[in-house]
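Input sequence (196 aa), recorded before submission:
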Amino acid sequence: LTGARRLGERSGVVAADLTLRDMSTRLAHQRITPSSELILLDHGGTIVAHSDFTRIASHLNQPDELPFRMPTLVETGDPVYTQLAEILGRQQRLGPWSANAGGRYILGHLNAIPIQTGQDLYLASLIPRAELLHEVNRLKNMSILISAGLLALTIGMVFWLARRISNSLRVLAQEAQAIREFKLDTAISVKTRILE
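Predicted structure, C-alpha cell format:
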C-alpha cells in the first residue's frame, strides 16, 4: 500500500510504502483478546489488512495473476465476515454490532477512518464475547465462592459464640430452677472467671 501527498506550493512530496504484512503486524499488536480480529476494509468490503495475515493469505490470488487484488469479506466464506459485509453495505453502518454464526457470538464495532483523498477506510473490530467476558466471569465466580465461604464462616462463628453464651445461661437457669424447687442437695457448679 502506497500513500503519497504533495506538500503545499509544490515544494515536495511525502510518501510511504507499507507492506500488507507490516499493516497486519501493526493491527495484531492492537488486539484486545488473543482471538480478536481487526480488519481494515475499503468501502466495497475488500480487505486491505487483517490482524491475522494467515487468515487472508489463502484467499489472495496467485502472484502470476494480474492484477493483484485482496479478497472481499464475502470471498472468505466466513459467515461472520458475510454479516459484516451486509452491515458495511447499509447506510448506517458505523458503530457497534453483533453476529452469531455457528455458535460463535461475536461483538463488533465498525469505525470510519477518514482519508483526505478518495473514499474512507473502515476498521472493523471482531471480539468473541466468551473470550471478552472470560476474565469478568472468572472474577465473578471467584467473588461468589469467597462470599459464600465468608458467609459460612460467619454463620459458624455466630453459632459457636451463641452456643457458648447460651450454654452458661442454660446452666444458670437450670440451677435457678433447682433452687426454686428446693433441690438444694447438689452443689452449684457454675464456671466463672469471677472469684468470690
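Checked by second reader. The beta strands are 2-6, 13-17, 37-41, 47-50, 95-101, 104-113, 121-128.
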